[in-house]
Amino acid sequence: MSFILRPSTTRAALCVTQVIKRSAHKKANIQVRLSQPVDGLGLRGQVVSVRPGLMRNFLFPAKKATYISKDYNPEQEEEVIDSAQLEQEREEALKKKEMATKKDEELLHNLKGVYEIKFSRAVIPGSENTFGSVTVEDIVHKLKAEYDITVDKSNIHVKTEGGRIKALGSHLVTLHVGQQITEITVKVEPTA
Question: Which residues form a coiled coil (predicted)?
Answer without folding.
Answer: 76-103
